[in-house]
Amino acid sequence: MKYLAALITVTCLFLTSCTDIQKKTGDLELSTDSLVLALNEQGVVTALTDKKTGTPYLAPDQSAPLMSLRVANEMLSPESAQFDAEGRTITLQYKHNVKATINVLSKDTHLTFELVSLTKNNLIELIVWGPYPTTIGKMIGATVGVVRGEHYAIGLQALNPKTLGGYPWQEDDSMPHNRQEAAARPTDFGSTLQAYCRNRHQERVIKNLNHDKYVAPSFEDGGMIGSKIALFGCPVDQALKKVGAIELAEGLPHPMIDGQWGKTAISASAAYLIMGFGEQDIDRALDVTKKAGLKYLYHPGPFETWGHFKLKETPFPEGVASMKRCVEKAKAQNVMLGLHTLSNFITPNDPYVTPVPDDRLAKVGASVLTDNIDAEQTEIPIASPDFFNQFRNNHLKAVVVGDELMRYGTVSEAPPWKLLDCQRGAFGTQATPHAKDATIAKLADHGYKVFLTNTALSIEVAKNIAELYNQTGLRQISFDGLEGNRSTGMGNYGEILFTQAWFDSLDENIKQHYIADASRSSHYFWHMYTRMNWGEPWYAGFRESQTDYRLKNQAYFQANMMPGMLGWFSMTPQTSIEDIEWMLTRSAAFNAGYAFCTSYKTLENNAQTDEILHLIGQWERARLSDAFTQGQKQRMKDINTEFTLEATNGNEWNLCQVFSHKFKHDKKVRQPGEPLYSTFTFKNPAAKQPMQFLLTAAKGSVQEIKMELDSYKQISLPITLNEGETVRYSGGETATVYNPNWQKLKEINLDASVLTVGSGEHAITFDCGFTGDKESHAKLEVRFVGPAEKIKAK
């Protein structure tokens, strides 16, 4: 009897766990381990509920169709829904007698919905899953498609490339620049989740790539049939794990880094060194990488051509074989190599362009010749100017007729239409005669003076990159310029097809070990790339270059469950220790990696190179070992705070906050006898100590330097600082004068007792003489060091 009772109990439990689809009063109820979704007989979602607590999360008084569709620019919601006996199939009825059949699966982790049939297919422009309105609004993962509240998260995942995370806000299928309108979107009531799939069986003319008219060719991908999504709900702290489980269950990309899922691996946010290298100097580059305590070395520009990705001959004399030897040498020293690509950008010297242009180069649109032309003719008669007189994004002014490329100066202003001032046989192609009615097409291009690709060529170029990685064992890649794949006329879908082709073509071993980033992100691509990162560090110093953008990105990364990255930072011969630690403080604060760009020449010219590299290694080791406390990270998020780090042994450090006050003393023109000095006030929040300082002749030369502390302690510096030179005092009895590249020029004696101040408010007057124009000025930075905070690797 006990056995029978136990058997009955187990059987009941089994049936309960499998009863994931129920019908109640005509409605369909679907559930996972933590989400209940209800659908009524009108095909409208009526509940999104936390299964364990019963808390409802569907926003009230909002439309929530399971699937909408668009006909003649009109968005239609379903009028009715029918469910089969098991609730595994949903048939939706729409206006115009359109029927859609959707297969449903309920799994422990998530629900799936797949469109399997659709009547009047050619009539329908696109379908939209949702939007599904929720009351959750605390953290919106617009890209990943997950919204998180205080306790509960709900997510949508597109389960194939043609199902785009988002809504058809733009007909070119590009994602909005604000990155807030994608698979998840913030709203006044909370958020919405949505995805869509477009019917691409017909050619369309759209606005694209800054062209008012651009031909989006037809594309055969099965159309809207097969579009598929997953929906899930779970406690907030399980959201990322849930997405990973869906990846595995649904066959989505799930790349690894050294045995860990790429989105959770410690090295996913690893900092890396960007510096050119070749077979002749790879040992030197590896030495710099290891001195910086980094494990990834990345080449910023190894290619002679883009498209076929031929390696430059001087650094890589045997091409792929040379690169492979570099990779193997680096791997033996536990350093991984990577390369920078420009995705589908095609250089004019690539075989896809010259001497015979590939027919798959992207085209803005085409017309025909209205007369025969010979091989020398420079005025080319065309039937229509529509695709040729668009100049906002027309950098190469190139057209193709047969196997010939031509460049034109302008287009006639009235019929008969002509391309004027043409260069024949451009880019190494052959000028030849062409017959009347021959097709002439405007080629799409980019401001980098490159051509772009149609869908078929995009896929082939992606495979070319994958093959290079397979042959060499390279482990890191950046897809810069990924938006160039909008040249396919399919926007975000074109980008996804490019990266999917690359991923599918990788050897399994590479898939288990790579790091991939890009300067932009999108919903399906989220599954393939490790992180987002971006370049362009050239505008200003470490503290000024894109600082707001870098910090805003951290909130975006956190909302989208991505590893943190700060972008590229470019070292110069003038980069200071203080600037380096300012950047490293931000890295620790957000647990965000970065790219450190440098060169042999820069390293040689900056006299503080060894100390800079040492600091990078120490901060990175402490960050990746989770040594910083949450409280320390919170303080370090303020960009006005500064810290310094000192190793006490291999796994322990002293972290000290630095209280910095920055002042500027300008050359003044005053009445005779009027004081020219400046008075600055500051606070020492730390213990009594000598006032550290850096004084720089920012513009013009500085001499006769005098400072007075608290109106009675006088300091005179018997030196002349030429423009760009700095005197640094870090305590003790001497200060050091440096040239702009931090090469030591001399030392001067100082009395530490005169510079010693207690905690609290203080004032300093500063005066000096200038040689230079009226814009001359000096910069003074006063610094105090707080008590050591001992941290250790976890």
What is the global morphology? globular
Mean pLDDT: 94
The count of β-strands is 53
Query: Which blocks of ≥5 consecutive residues have pLDDT under 50?
Result: 1-19
Derived structural class = alpha+beta
CATH architecture type of the largest domain: Distorted Sandwich
**Helix content range of the residues, please?**
10-25%
Query: How many domains would you count in the coordinates?
Result: 4
Sheet having the most strands: 8 strands, antiparallel
Output the strand order for the largest sheet.
Answer: 7-8-9-10-20-14-13-12
Q: Classify the fold: give the CATH topology of the largest domain.
A: Beta-galactosidase, Chain A, domain 5
Please tell me how large the radius of gyration is.
Answer: 32 Å
- End-to-end Cα distance, whole Å, is 54 Å
CATH class identity of the largest domain: Mainly Beta
How many H/I helices? Answer: 13
Proportion of strand residues: 25-35%
Structure description:
Helix content is 19%, strand content 35%. The protein is built from 13 helices and 53 strands. By secondary structure, the protein is of the alpha+beta class. It has four domains: 20-252, Distorted Sandwich (Beta-galactosidase, Chain A, domain 5); 256-356 and 454-514, Alpha-Beta Barrel (TIM Barrel); 363-443; 657-789, Jelly Rolls, CATH 2.60.120. The chain has an eight-stranded antiparallel β-sheet. Mean pLDDT is 94; it is low at 1-19. Strand 13 (146-148) and strand 14 form a beta hairpin. It starts with a helix and ends with a strand.
